[in-house]
Specification:
The complex is a heterodimer of chains A (282) and B (548). Chain A is mostly helical and 282 residues long. Chain A contains twelve helices and no strands. In chain A, helix 2 crosses helix 4 and helix 2 crosses helix 11. By secondary structure, chain B is of the alpha/beta class.
């Protein structure tokens, strides 16, 4: 097989390109939001409940008269930030646990995996609710809770990939030449599970965005008046007959981002040939 | 009229730019009813692509570019899907390379054969079962009734291949295609399976296309042979004539590269009597301990020892071969010596000191002095490191060489292996199998070892590449004076490289002595059996029967 370039991975199929495009649009939109939004995100900018298409307020205003476009693009920032940082932490820290468990094995492996099992046996929403009640609602707490929620799954997947590598010749030769466990883990194993880690990161991020929205909707996530998509859906539900766009617009933003992430991840996994790596093919 | 006639067949694969590059290029041949044709070539010569095209199949990413495949006068390439379905399995059957991959693993093997009979012959369950059982009996599967209800993973590799052959013969096809059916099997099992196919084929008068990289096997199986290189037919003719007096340079090279059991041994037997051996293995036993588990508590089960009471010695500078079928415990011995496993009982004495330690507890200098080279070259090199970094690591760890000095030494090592310094920048995947194994050898010799363990180092390589790699390995071994434990199932190779030979059977030493003596005058029945299988002799069956 010829060497993969970043470009060839990102445009593996038309679906991948669409997915990557949607994600890029969301990311850039959220990242540069402060540069182009016409109003402050908590500023009472006009009449309440203006419909979309109004001259000054392209996407209308909400029940308090805040500019809805501003709130939508700013609302993505907290979700995306919490999801990405939380999941990044989960795959990096979880990845180290996973690879070391696979390599060292024995009691350590058992201990790590039983902790993982224990965590997986607690219903996710209950865990989050307890955590948030205990430590309060803030972006930091939410990021940590997302990280903890997604770590066990990531450990499972990454460990299983690492386990397929441990019996290979290059790991044996590293051991026989006297490399320390840390050196084998970092130099020999980690570079070879990076593809799985990348895909894992992408899958879990899209799921985390949905989780965060659900949490905000339930009042466990980001607290008002900070804009957040889940929160906006929750607020908008009360006006669903009079001003349906208040629900539909944030819902549309959530779904385009999640669909984009899923498309992009699918393409990414296929392009990297992870089916083969997991032994499903050939 | 010929049963099968291939005219100017061209099959190509799409490259990145979307153009078709031929992998099978203008191949023509004819095969009579009941005839046999061997197609020989090294990996990547297009022989599997050709085999699939004969059934009107192209792998994804490939396409037929030109030509005709006339089977009983009709062009298979023009067939519609239902027509192909009636053809495949009924009139033409294929036995692919990997028997485990070609059986569905959640289906009992019996059902996989009855399925074919039900679809193609319209048999009912009972009749199909009877037919399958008699096929199993015909393919000499032990206890057909019991095998019938087994799943593929519950039977041995040789048995799996027999099941696949039973499935292929189910409808008594007019043409059977064997695509390297025995590559994954031992020489002795291989010979049993091939003998079976040969006999059954004659009985039901099926034509045979036999695809292999091994010229000696085509000589055994087929009347006529096609030799392929890069998708083109290099040479064709009667098998015996091609084998005895090849005409083209390529075929000559292929024939001469085959390690032969009857060639004179080129390695010296042990000379210096009374010298202190470099490595002594004394009454070594090893058994895999069952992992602690609840099931183990309820059913205490002692695994039979993988190696049982094995003793031998290697002198410095000497090459000693360890020979046996898979599962005979050869690799276990190597793993114990290098410290990946610790022996259950017995001693490994290196340079006068016992070293029954796992690698972790061995001093760094001892680790340096014993090096191992593995069977699969690709998986023994980290795919994410460049060759330069792979070679530099042992130099840094054992000799503290860094930067330019490490690089210079790495280039020297590559040159010893007849590789150029531009490989330093490449990744393992960008190298051919032979080059990868040469890099692995260079890495082992980077440590300047006193003892090198070669675990089936050439069995994953093509014949011609194998000859070259062996030559280089012998060269560097002689140059550095390292002793070598050479593990192989290939007696021809052993004959070429080793002065002394130890034959292992099921973990026990069957016979040991100078290679020349063992090959010309074997004492043990098992050695005779291995030799007969390796030289493709007809008396192989009798020897095998005596053993059982």
């Amino acid at each position: 097989m010829s060497e993969r370039t970043l470009y060839s991975v990102l445009t593996y199929t038309p679906g991948t390109t669409i997915g990557v495009g949607l994600v890029a649009l969301h990311m850039l939109g959220a990242l540069f939001a402060p540069l182009y939004i016409p109003f402050g995100e908590t500023q009472l900018a006009g009449f309440p409940l203006l419909p979309p298409g109004t001259a000054e307020h392209v996407l209308g205003t909400d029940v308090l008269g805040r500019d809805y476009l501003t709130r939508l693009v700013m609302g993505g920032r907290s979700s995306i930030f919490v999801a990405m940082v939380g999941v990044l932490g989960a795959v990096v820290i979880g990845g180290l646990f996973a690879i070391s468990a696979a390599y060292i094995g024995g009691l350590y492996d058992d201990a790590v995996m039983r902790i993982v099992d224990t965590k997986l046996s607690i219903p996710g929403i209950l865990f989050v609710a307890l955590f948030v009640t205990g430590f309060g609602r803030s972006v930091t707490v939410l990021t940590i809770v997302i990280g903890l929620t997604y770590m066990p799954g990531a450990i499972r997947i990454i460990r299983s990939q690492a386990l397929t590598l441990v019996p290979l010749g290059y790991i044996k030769s590293a051991r026989l030449r006297g490399e320390s466990a840390l050196s084998v883990i970092l130099r020999e194993l980690t570079p070879n599970v990076m593809e799985v880690v990348a895909v894992e990161f992408a899958i879990r991020t899209s799921s985390a965005i949905l989780t965060i929205s659900a949490l905000s909707f339930l009042g466990l996530g980001i607290s008002p008046p900070t804009p957040d998509w889940g929160l906006m859906v929750s607020d908008g539900v009360r006006q669903i007959y009079t001003a349906p766009w208040l629900v539909l617009l944030p819902a549309f933003f959530i779904s385009t981002l999640v669909i984009g992430l899923n498309f992009a991840t699918d393409g990414l996994a296929n392009a990297l040939g992870l089916d083969a790596a997991r032994g499903l093919r050939g | 009229m010929a049963l099968l006639e291939v005219k100017g067949l061209k099959v190509g694969y799409y490259d990145e730019t979307g153009t078709l590059v031929p992998a099978v290029d203008d191949v023509s041949f004819a095969l009579d009813k009941g005839g046999t044709l061997g197609i020989v070539g090294e990996s990547g010569c297009g022989k599997t692509t050709l085999a699939r095209a004969l059934m009107g199949y192209c792998r994804p990413g490939s396409a037929i570019m030109a030509g005709e495949v006339l089977f009983e006068g009709e062009d298979v390439l023009e067939f519609t899907t239902p027509e192909l379905r009636r053809l495949r399995g009924r009139r033409i059957a294929i036995v692919p390379q990997n028997p485990l991959g070609s059986l569905t693993y959640h289906m009992k093997v019996g059902h996989q054969v009855t399925e074919i009979l039900k679809i193609h012959q319209g048999m009912d369950n009972k009749a199909a079962r009877q037919a399958a059982l008699s096929l199993f009996a015909a393919t000499k599967l032990p206890e057909p009734e019991r095998i019938y209800d087994r799943y593929p993973h519950e039977i041995s590799g040789g048995q799996r291949q027999r099941v696949v052959i039973a499935g292929a013969l189910a409808c008594e096809p007019a043409l059977m295609i064997l695509d390297e059916p025995t590559t994954a099997l031992d020489t002795t099992t291989e010979m049993q399976v091939l003998k079976l196919v040969k006999d059954l084929r004659e009985k039901i008068d099926t034509a045979l296309v036999y695809i292999t990289h091994d010229l000696t096997l085509t000589n055994y199986m087929c009347e006529n042979v096609l030799v392929m290189l890069d998708g083109k037919v290099m040479e064709r003719g009667r098998a015996s004539q091609i084998f005895e007096s090849p005409r083209t340079d390529y075929t000559k090279m292929l024939v001469s590269a085959i390690p032969r059991v009857d060639a004179p041994s080129r390695a010296a037997a042990r000379t210096g009597a009374g010298r202190q051996p470099l490595l002594r293995v004394e009454r070594l036993s090893f058994a895999y301990r069952p992992r602690f588990s609840l099931g183990g508590l309820l059913k205490a089960e002692d695994a039979p020892p993988a190696v049982d009471d094995v003793s031998f010695a290697i002198e410095s500078g000497e090459v000693l071969a360890l020979v046996g079928e898979s599962g005979s415990g050869k690799s276990t011995v190597a793993n114990v010596i290098c410290g990946l496993l610790t022996p259950t009982s017995g001693d490994v004495v290196f340079d006068g000191r016992p070293i029954n330690l796992s690698a972790r507890h061995r001093p760094a200098d001892l680790k340096r002095r014993i090096q191992i080279i593995f069977q699969d070259p690709l998986s023994s090199l980290n795919p994410r490191r460049r060759i330069g970094s792979i070679l530099a690591r042992p130099l840094e760890m054992f000799f503290g060489l860094k930067g330019k000095r490490a690089r210079d030494r790495a280039v020297e090592l590559l040159e010893d292996m007849e590789l150029t310094s531009d490989l330093l920048r490449r990744f393992p995947r960008q190298l051919s199998g032979g080059q990868q194994q040469r890099v692995a050898i260079a890495r082992a010799f980077a440590a300047e070892p006193d003892l090198i363990l070669c675990d089936e180092v050439t069995s994953a390589l093509d014949v011609s590449v194998q000859a070259h790699v062996l030559e280089l390995l012998k060269g560097i071994q002689a140059k550095t004076g390292a002793a070598c434990l050479f593990i192989s199932h290939d007696l021809g190779v052993v004959k070429q490289v080793a002065g002394m030979t130890v034959v292992l059977e099921k973990g026990v030493i069957a016979e040991a002595g100078p290679t020349e003596r063992i090959f010309t005058d074997p004492v043990h029945d098992y050695t005779r059996l291995l030799l007969a299988a390796a030289s493709r002799r007809e008396d192989f069956e009798e020897l095998a029967a005596q053993r059982i």
